Amino acid sequence: MELPPDAAFASADSRVRSTAAAGRSIGSMGIVEIPHKTVQRITCMGSGFVGGPTSAVIAYKSDVEVTVVDINADRIAAWKSESLPIYEPGLKEIVQAVSARVHPSQQHDSHESNAASDNVAPVPHVKLLFSTDVDQAIADADLIFVCVNTPTKAHGIGKGSAADLDFVEAATRTIARVATQDKIVVEKSTVPCRTAQSIREILAANAHPGVRFDVLSNPEFLAEGTAIRDLLNPDRIIIGSMPTPAGCRAAATLAGVYEQWVPRERIITMNLWSSELSKLAANAMLAQRISSVNALSAICEATGADVDEVSYACGLDSRIGPQMLKAGPGFGGSCFQKDIFNIVYLSESLHLYEIADYWRAVINMNEHQKQRFTKRIIACLYNNLAGKKLAVLGFAFKKNTSDTRESPAITLVSNFVGERAQVAIYDPRVREDQIWRELINNGSDAEMLKRKVSVCATAYEACVAADAVVVMTEWDEFSNKSTSAVTVRKEERKPLATLNVNTCTSKSTSSQDTGHGASRLLSSPKLDGAASFWVPSRKGAGVVIKDPSNGQIKTFTSQRPSSGSSPSQSPGGVSASPASPPRRLPILQSGSVNVAPDGSLDSLYQFPGEYLTSEGFPTDCEKVQATSKLPPAATSSIDARLHAAEMPDKGATPTRLDWARIASGMRKPMFVFDGRNILDHSKLEALGFRVEAIGKRGTVVSE
Ligand SMILES: NC(=O)c1ccc[n+]([C@@H]2O[C@H](COP(=O)([O-])OP(=O)(O)OC[C@H]3O[C@@H](n4cnc5c(N)ncnc54)[C@H](O)[C@@H]3O)[C@@H](O)[C@H]2O)c1
Ligand SMILES: O=c1ccn([C@@H]2O[C@H](COP(=O)(O)OP(=O)(O)O[C@H]3O[C@H](CO)[C@@H](O)[C@H](O)[C@H]3O)[C@@H](O)[C@H]2O)c(=O)[nH]1
Asked: Which residue minimizes the CA distance to atom 29 of ligand 2?
């Protein structure tokens, strides 16, 4: 193992500077130019919210084979089953595609005739494996991602703020024990600054003779709910390495994996400690924005300012930007609080007490927001919750995930139970046992919980005879706002089968191709006439559409129209306005979403009948008009499969709530507490609700 002597190690930072000054690759995108090994097999230790999706996307986008291992056998069994252990939009489709994917050598040139591609049966090639055989997977891999959990310590010194590195150390020791050949070990878990040094020392001390390890830091920045989109189109890939020739070579090897789908300029290399700290810093800054806007929400409620308007106004300043400025009941999730505590602990360890106080304030504000919202609800309900029923809509910490870690709903529900209220919870994705576990772990008495709390299969059931509805998660189905950017009722779904592109107009408002939102399909609920969807203009991006009449998958790739060109029909029934000669759009394996044979399909794959939000959609898109050619009757089996894939836990349909129906069953006066500002208040007021929302003037001020 190349481990510099301590003295040299201590001056790593100065060596980074001199390397950069000499025009070497650290800190620049030239890293991939360094001669390096090519990775063929990756093993990912940890099959959680990061390990699973990250591995699936690497297998999907690169030529690397990935094995995901976990010490939790139940989790691995779930990954191999129809019901994945986590919910992420698009994840199941990608896992299915790469678990039996057509090997590139078996794929046909996209210019070949369709007849040829139809006649040759594709050979399934497994690119992604899940296993509990950790040792074997380590032995087989060139490169190992350590993607294990790093929770906040719950014992001993640093309890409640330091990171618990038990799992990282155990994983490291396993690698050292098993590896009999050189490995690159990639620290992907979020860890305190300088953890890579501990990993290096443990590996060096336990390595088999002649085996060398290179340790890299490669933090993950995906957000849950958009993990697949984030992994397909990351803002940046950070790779930290030792500033030595061997460290740079290892970084180049990892960069070579990402380079297969991430533009080079987004692959950034730096020193190990900067990389580790960048991850903590990014989360701390993001959380700080949310605490800032939540602090402003209290001022808004007291003054009559509207927090959405204030956020909007601030976000228009290009130095501030619009993201992460949505007021809410407090941030949740497994990362923000943990990672800020990490910085707090680090600062205190370095005797930087004022710095620690500064970051701790972000968490204190978050806690305050949850308590403030609780108090406002109690105050509105005449300062008494005893005997009242509260329906809590949403338990996940944000929409589009089944994750409940640190969800603000846990605190709110516990508070309501403490006030002796009856609480009925509904969440479209979260399993009932998960909800109970969270509430019990939060310290609520199990007997009391059993008497006071129920978990319901539908929102209507939760709201029957309720005095108040509390919206805790911004699931689209709860919203009553008039916008096309919502999920439509199932019965309104009709197939987009064969598509006829009528027009293709450029809607370029930005010269910068963000590449984001590529997996979004925006469609009008009424498809009997023309429907439209957006295709990112980035070359090679596209949609995959399953034809409900025969189950075939068709691709439509994005092409810029040339002026005066008229649409032409492709053999697959898909036509486009071509900028170049019409390309054959191959028909892929039916039954699963797959990558285009030329590997060009970027990330847009949607099924007919699925209408997702347009929120966050890129500005640099091309609008494609498409006409449905199939009668609606053909949808049923597709819809059933789509539905089964989307709703493995509940079997409920993600339709928008009928608030009139909710109103008809509630006790009077009826309250709605909109914790996410996703409701049209005037519509609810017309139904007789009294609406209170975060950051909007209410009937009481809770401070
Ligand atoms: N959840 C996110 O959105 C997110 C995003 C970016 C970074 N991170 C960071 O990534 C890391 C993983 O997060 P997560 O949410 O995926 O955690 P997780 O708890 O969902 O998954 C971690 C998995 O690692 C497994 N594991 C533990 N020790 C192991 C070992 N020795 N060998 C094999 N498997 C082992 C656990 O059984 C568990 O299934 C954390 O450090 C987290 O801070 C998380
Ligand atoms: O404007 C906003 C944005 C988010 N939230 C809340 O903040 C929490 C976190 O949301 P988000 O950041 O979208 O999800 P995470 O999955 O926790 O992702 C964060 O944490 C990950 C783990 O480290 C990082 O990788 C991501 O970059 C970082 O965004 C959730 O409760 C959201 O409801 C708000 O209240 N207002």
From this structure: 223
Q: Hey, what are 349's tokens?
A: 């360890």
Residue spans per domain, the chain: 34-108+123-262, 286-480+656-693, 490-646
* Residue in this structure with the two tokens 């469609």, named with its chain if needed: 523
pLDDT recorded at residue 399:
96
**pLDDT > 70 in the chain, percent:** 67
Q: C-alpha distances in angstroms, 380 versus 260, 534, 702?
A: 55, 44, 9
Distance, C-alpha 657 to centroid of its chain: 24
| Predicted TM-score (pTM) of this structure | 0.76
Closest by CA position to 436, among listed 400, 410, 459: 410
Structure-block tokens of residue 343: 């910085």
In this structure, the residue with its CA closest to atom 4 of ligand 1 is 50
What pLDDT score was predicted for residue 100?
Answer: 65
CA angle 136, 238, 28 (to 5 degrees): 125
DSSP class of 562: P
Which ligand lies nearest the alpha carbon of 46? 1
Please name the residues in contact with 49: beta carbons below 8 A apart, sequence gap of 6 or more.
86, 88, 224, 227, 334, 403
- Cα(392)–Cα(409) distance, rounded to whole angstroms? 8
Region at 453 (left for phi over 0; alpha for psi -120 to 50; beta for the rest): beta
3-state DSSP assignment of residue 639: helix
Residue found by looking up tokens 């990639």 in the block: 186
For atom 19 of ligand 2, the residue with the nearest CA is 223
Q: Are strands 128-131 and 65-69 parallel, antiparallel or unpaired?
A: parallel
What pLDDT is stored for residue 140 in this prediction? 97
How much is the pLDDT for 444?
86
Written as one letter, the residue type at 621 is: C
Structure tokens at 540: 């090679």
Q: What is the pLDDT of residue 701?
A: 53
Closest CA to 460 of 429, 493, 418, 428: 428
Cα first-last separation, the chain: 59
CB atoms within 10 A of CB 110: 18
**Nearest-angstrom CA–CA distance, 219 and 54:** 11
Instruction: Identify whether the C-beta of residue 142 lies closer than 8 Å to the C-beta of residue 40.
Output: yes
Cβ(10) – ligand 1 distance below 6 Å: no
Q: In this predicted complex, what is the ipTM?
A: 0.99
Closest by CA position to 151, among listed 46, 292, 59: 46
- Under 8 Å between Cβ of 198 and 169: yes
Instruction: Report the distance separating Cα 279 and Cα 221, nearest Å.
Output: 7
Residue to mutate, 67, 147, 152, ligand 1, most ligand atoms under 8 Å from C-beta? 147
In this predicted structure, what is the pLDDT of residue 508? 29
DSSP 162-204: SB--HHHHHHHHHHHHH--S-EEEEE-S---TTHHHHHHHHHH
Distance CA(263)–CA(233), nearest Å, equals 9
d(CA 240, CA 234): 17
- pLDDT at residue 522 in the model: 30
CATH 3.40.50.720 fits domain 34-108+123-262: yes
Q: Which of 215, 150, 154, 206 is nearest to 180 (CA)?
A: 206
Q: Enter the tokens of residue 485.
A: 């950017």
In the chain, which residues have pLDDT < 50? 1-26, 101-123, 484-549, 551-555, 557-653
Name residue 186's beta-bridge partners.
145, 216
Single-letter code of the amino acid located at 503: T
Q: How far apart are CA 300 and CA 694, in angstroms?
A: 9
At a CB cut-off of 8 Å and minimum separation 6, what does 440 contact?
446, 449
Closest ligand 2 atom, CA of 474?
Answer: 33
Superfamily the domain 286-480+656-693 falls into:
NAD(P)-binding Rossmann-like Domain (3.40.50.720)
